[in-house]
Amino acid sequence: MSKTEKKIPELRFPEFAKSAEWEEKTLEEVGKTISGLSGKSAEDFGSGKPYVTYKQVFDNAWVDFSKCGFVQINDNENQNKVQEGDILFTTSSETPNEVGFASAVLEQPKEDTYLNSFCFAIRPNDLKNLQPEFSRYLFHSFTYRKAVSVLAQGSTRFNISKSSFLNLKISIPKLKEQQKIASCLSSLDEVIAIYSQKLEQLKDHKTGLLQNLFPAQGEKIPKVRFKGFKGAWEERFVEDFFSVGSSKRVLQEDWTNQGVPFYRTRELVSLNKNEPFGSEIFISEELFLELSERYGVPKEGDFLVSGVGTLGVCYQVQANDKFYFKDGNVLWFKLESGLNSTYFKFCFQSDYIQSQIFKQASASTVGTYTIQNAKKTTVWCPPTLEEQQKIASCLSSLDELITVQAEKIEQLELHKKGLMQGLFPKINN
């Protein structure tokens, strides 16, 4: 008989290796069902007693009472109140994979707190049989999520019937093993939280530098300046350093499913965020060669800038890049001379340029960043290229730290995902 059939997880702590298999129960057997708010209208919300919102349940594995909404509760109403150990569930969502998200109540609320009407709760019969800390991981495990998504019904909005949900079977170990699993995963969550906090601090530091390494409005010298550099900065136009245009139009009939990647705004956003993505559209090598020879293609140090939809997203073309891009939606800044490319990348990220883009776009009826507007966008220029290079080097080093920190978090998240898959038995419903 396999471990799956025996209700034993693939990964088990040594002290429990010879322990009994996990006990299988339906959710209905775990505890009683508690419904959310009823009989409330829009004007009842905004003040009064705290209530756990749908978003809190959907976004978090445990309830943070400091983020509750507020609702008016009359003295004669008999509304259910949440309490320690309750497991809160969403009842509907836009995709089947997001139905039945759970949030555990890890502590007794300091005051009467209620639950959103689009959620319900299961109140365990005995907290000694189902520990709250363990339940927040159990109900986010791969096996649980896979089983509950199968039960979701709908087309544009997916729902799960309470009867089907309550018949869902889960496996639960003895209390000591629950505590061991919860302690392991909680410790990992704490490490992820510390790394995430450090990442946010690095991002905040970069934001501060982007504000202070460039002159403020009405000033000619930045608040923060590296030693050895003097003289007033100058405002210049983008067209002083770049030839601004777009690509040669490629007809949809020339799109292929292999060859040279063809980028649109969505791919540009992923490139800007350094996120992995798979190209959806390509053009042939022959067409790319023809376009390259007749009209040119982006070179190292050039920039692509989104001009429609998500405005002001900028990507600095790298040495090994090979792609073509959609005309109109994406602007092409061809670097000519007089400006350090990486300096411009950070200048473009600053509020100084971003505010110009959105101000120009808001003056347009369709909200676009046009070639003409791009040409007249102003850029802060230090007196020397050496100062540009110093700023670029400083911010590039900080970006490298941010990337390394983000990769550490990603590795920890992958490790947690592997543990979550191995520490819980498979569910056969």
Walk me through this protein's architecture.
This protein is an alpha+beta fold. Among the domains are: 22-172, DNA methylase specificity domains (Adenine-n6-DNA-methyltransferase TaqI, Chain A, domain 2, Alpha-Beta Complex), CATH 3.90.220; 234-381, DNA methylase specificity domains (Adenine-n6-DNA-methyltransferase TaqI, Chain A, domain 2). It contains 13 helices and 21 strands. Strand 17 (303-306) and strand 18 form a beta hairpin. Helix 7 packs antiparallel against helix 13 (385-422) and helix 10 (341-349) crosses helix 13 (385-422). The chain is elongated, with a radius of gyration of 28 Å. The model has no long low-confidence stretch (mean pLDDT 91).
Write a brief caption for the model:
36% of the residues lie in helices and 18% in strands. It is of the alpha+beta class.
